TrEMBL record:
Keywords per UniProt: DNA-binding, Exonuclease, Hydrolase, Nuclease
Organism of provenance: Actinacidiphila acididurans
InterPro entries: 5-3_exonucl_a-hlix_arch_N, 5-3_exonuclease, 5-3_exonuclease_C_sf, DNA_polI_H3TH, FEN, HhH2, PIN-like_dom_sf
Protein name as annotated: 5'-3' exonuclease
Domain 5'-3' exonuclease: 1-267
The keyword Transcription regulation is annotated on this UniProt entry: no
Length: 300
């Protein structure tokens, strides 16, 4: 089980009331919400291995160099690329990291890469079925029924997870999972600052990718003298050449990240009980932490 950790603690932050606070009044809604989320995942799916994948770099320079608008709207004005995170969430992230470390849940982040890339690499080398837990549809490109790679997508809270396999992607987007990245590049994604091809929305992007199999096929069709595309679509694809030259690398999840060697085995007891007790007292983690520890103990 691979957790897109930031995606999940953002959801926890917005899903758990900010009135959930530590003894000193500091909000800990994201911390406790994430712990409850992981407890539910462990209980419901009993993974033998689990990794909390982290954004060591939420907006890697190599992606920005290729498409300068990449995630620009999330950058705090006047900063050198700091992410716009709610004021009451930012202080909770180090607490989340410290708690996961004290429990013994493996955290992996690699400088210069996003959590998506860590997930892509770990799923590529996995020898067992993989469950990717994320609220980011970009990771649909990793779904592979033949290898048992699926996405668990939170719809509402921790108790409503959609299991996304190849059939689900085909039914919703009319493209195969292995076509999803090309489809997304063609369509664009305002939430990530990806412009896409002007005039080509989701329906048309799916139609073109299905007809020509991949982005290279769409571009080849547009370049043919006897065009297989309507004049408007042909011109749109040709005009977007510079964007389409680099979009697949930006949209595509890296699968060759230098991930450090680490044990991914799910702990049945805390790695550092004293540190965990101190954190529990300091931040008032109460029932959320206890539920996760009980779920982990049950796996042992």
């Amino acid at each position: 089980m691979l957790l897109d950790t930031a995606s999940l603690y953002f959801r926890a932050y917005y899903g758990v009331p900010e009135s959930v606070r530590a003894p000193d009044g500091t909000p800990v809604n994201a911390v406790r919400g994430l712990l409850d989320f992981i407890a539910r995942l462990v209980t419901d799916h009993s993974p033998a291995e689990l990794v909390a994948c982290m954004d060591a770099d939420w907006r890697p320079a190599w992606r920005v160099d290729l498409i300068p608008s990449y995630k620009t709207h999330r950058v705090v004005t006047g900063t050198e690329g700091a992410e716009d995170v709610p004021d009451t969430l930012s202080p909770q992230v180090p607490v989340i990291e410290a708690v996961l470390d004290a429990i013994g849940i493996t955290r992996i982040g690699v400088p210069g890469y996003e959590a998506d890339d860590v997930i892509g690499t770990l799923s590529a080398v996995a020898r067992t079925p993989v469950l990717i837990v994320t609220g980011d549809r970009d990771l649909y490109q990793l779904v592979d029924d033949s290898r048992g790679v699926r996405v668990l997508f939170p719809r509402k809270g921790v108790g409503d997870l959609e299991v996304v396999d190849e059939e689900a992607i085909l039914a919703k987007y009319r493209v195969r999972a292995d076509q999803y990245a090309d489809f997304a590049a063609l369509r664009g994604d305002p939430s990530d600052g990806l412009p896409g091809v002007k005039g080509i929305g989701e329906k048309t992007a799916a139609e073109l990718i299905t007809r020509f199999d991949d982005l290279a096929g769409v571009r080849a069709a547009a370049a043919e003298p006897l065009a297989k595309l309507t004049p408007a679509r042909r011109r749109a694809v040709l005009d977007a050449a510079d964007y389409l030259d680099v979009a697949p690398k930006v949209v595509g999840v890296a699968r060759d990240v230098p991930v450090p060697a680490a044990t991914h085995r799910l702990p049945s007891e805390p790695a550092d009980p004293a540190a965990l007790l101190a954190l529990a007292d300091r931040w008032g983690l109460g029932g959320s932490l206890n539920r996760l520890l009980e779920a982990l103990a049950a796996t042992g």
